[in-house]
């Protein structure tokens, strides 16, 4: 047991010794680490202090450089201001010196003016003495002598000018007449066209007379439908292989002729088909009118014409003036005007344009009470034509005053075109106007849809709307129109008024 206690005591003493040894070792190690850490801290501190000193020195140098640069700029600015001050002072000195010189010159001029004034007074006195002496010698005052001299000079100048003017006028008249005749003759000779007076009938040729019966239809239904749709009188007589189309309006005759051609070619001839074909042909004719207008402008070299004026030019093909085709007449007048304008040294393009449009007032969409020259001028103004063109159109029949040289040219060339042999027929124009007046008189009444003057004006056929006009009103309308025609119009023979009232019902099976 003592041995065990001794052993345990030895172990405890050994552990204690070991603990003292290890504690000393760790203490030494700790002290060593702390010492090294303090040394590294001192080193790092010195390094940071050096870096801070270097940064401070760098910033100090940069600041000093900026201050030096700013001071340099300020110094330069001060130098420039000083230079400007010196220049301003120098200029002020120069101005003062010049002002003194100008003041000296002004004093010299004032002295010179005083001297000149004294001399002028002396000259005036001498002149007055001379004038007084001359007046005493001539026994009249200066004003009287001046008036007498001026009167004598005026009289002499007037006599010389009158004789010279008279000679110039006589020579100008002689030359003007000769030149005018020469230019007109040359213009007529250089423009060669054919003339044909238009008729009021057209002939529709057929292959055989059997077609006549189909055109007439059962109880005349087809021929009445054609006449009602076109306003053209269809004359079917014993003339072999021909049907006569009679109407004063060439457009209607052409629509009727083309419609008959399509109906005969197709073979289907009945009232419904007739109305369909007439409507289609009417549309085609309107398209053709526009194309004719464009082609006419291209042929004559006229550009920039308004589309509405172009359409009116195309409509001229289906109008006549005193029996003369209006489009041919206008084309001829345009060529004559261009030739005459070239001879006179004027603008031939403007003259040709005015010549083509001079009768545009004869083909308006709506009837007007204005003369065709004034109406044509207003249409040209409406669609942007130049003032000289408008004046030439309006003045070619002397309705307005001529203001340009184009106006007399248009008037002369219009007369040349209409005065050629065979160009016009006066009776036709009055006849056409009478037929138009008949139709317009009927169209003025309420409920009238269409009115056609047929049989050379011996019959007025009036179509009324069945829903607006009763049978009794149709009878009264016929009597009223007959009385109005009898009292207001002059005509040969008699005029028959036929009022047609139809009730048409249409149903569609789908």
Quick tags:
single chain; 510 residues; mainly alpha; 6 domains; three-stranded antiparallel sheet; three-stranded mixed sheet; 8 strands; 70% helix
Characterization of this structure:
This protein is mainly alpha-helical and 510 residues long. The protein folds into six domains: 13-68; 84-134; 150-188; 191-300, 2-Layer Sandwich (Ribosomal Protein S8, Chain: A, domain 1), CATH 3.30.1370; 316-424, Hypothetical protein af1432; 433-502, GMP Synthetase, Chain A, domain 3 (2-Layer Sandwich). It is built from 14 helices and eight strands. The strands form three sheets. Strands 1-3-2 form a three-stranded antiparallel β-sheet, covered by helices on one side. A hairpin with a 6-residue loop joins β2 (233-235) and β3 (242-246). The termini are far apart.
């Amino acid at each position: 047991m003592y041995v065990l206690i001794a052993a345990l005591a030895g172990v405890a003493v050994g552990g204690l010794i070991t603990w003292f040894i290890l504690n000393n070792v760790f203490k030494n190690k700790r002290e060593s680490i702390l010492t090294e850490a303090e040394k590294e801290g001192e080193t790092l501190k010195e390094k940071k202090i050096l870096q801070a000193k270097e940064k401070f020195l760098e910033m100090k140098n940069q600041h000093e450089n900026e201050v030096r640069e700013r001071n340099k700029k300020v110094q330069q600015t001060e130098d420039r201001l000083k230079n400007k001050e010196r220049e301003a002072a120098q200029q002020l000195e120069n101005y003062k010196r010049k002002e003194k010189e100008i003041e000296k010159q002004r004093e010299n001029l004032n002295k010179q003016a005083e001297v000149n004034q004294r001399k002028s007074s002396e000259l005036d006195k001498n002149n007055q003495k001379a004038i007084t002496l001359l007046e005493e010698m001539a026994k009249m005052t200066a004003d009287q002598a001046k008036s007498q001299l001026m009167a004598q000079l005026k009289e002499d100048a007037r006599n010389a000018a009158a004789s010279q003017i008279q000679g110039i006028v006589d020579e100008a008249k002689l030359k003007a007449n000769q030149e005018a005749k020469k230019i007109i003759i040359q213009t007529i000779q250089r423009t060669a066209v054919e003339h044909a007076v238009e008729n009021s009938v057209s002939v529709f040729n057929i292959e055989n007379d059997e077609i006549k019966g189909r055109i007439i239809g059962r109880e005349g239904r087809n021929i009445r439908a054609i006449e009602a749709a076109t306003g053209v009188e269809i004359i079917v007589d014993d003339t072999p292989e021909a049907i006569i189309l009679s109407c004063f309006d060439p457009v209607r005759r052409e629509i009727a002729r083309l419609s008959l051609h399509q109906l005969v070619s197709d073979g289907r001839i009945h009232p419904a088909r007739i109305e369909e074909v007439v409507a289609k042909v009417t549309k085609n004719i309107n398209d053709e009118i526009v194309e004719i207008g464009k082609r006419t402008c291209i042929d004559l070299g006229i550009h920039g014409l308004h589309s509405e004026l172009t359409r009116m030019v195309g409509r001229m093909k289906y109008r006549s003036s005193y029996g003369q085709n209006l489009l041919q007449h206008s084309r001829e007048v345009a060529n004559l005007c261009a030739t005459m304008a070239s001879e006179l040294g004027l603008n031939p393009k403007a003259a040709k344009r005015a010549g083509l449009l001079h009768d545009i007032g004869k083909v308006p969409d709506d009837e007007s009470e204005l003369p065709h020259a004034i109406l044509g001028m207003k249409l040209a103004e409406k669609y942007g034509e130049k003032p000289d063109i408008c004046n030439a159109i309006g003045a070619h029949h002397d309705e307005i005053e001529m203001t340009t040289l184009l106006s007399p040219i248009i008037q002369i060339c219009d007369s040349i075109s209409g005065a050629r042999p065979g160009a016009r027929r006066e009776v036709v124009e009055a006849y056409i106007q009478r037929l138009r007046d008949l139709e317009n008189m009927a169209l003025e009444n309420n409920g009238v849809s269409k009115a056609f003057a047929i049989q050379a004006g011996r019959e007025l056929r009036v179509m009324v709307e069945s829903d607006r006009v009763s049978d009794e009103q149709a009878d009264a309308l016929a009597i009223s129109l007959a009385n109005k025609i009898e009292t207001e119009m002059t005509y040969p023979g008699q005029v028959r008024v036929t009022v047609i009232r139809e009730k048409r019902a249409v149903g569609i099976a789908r």
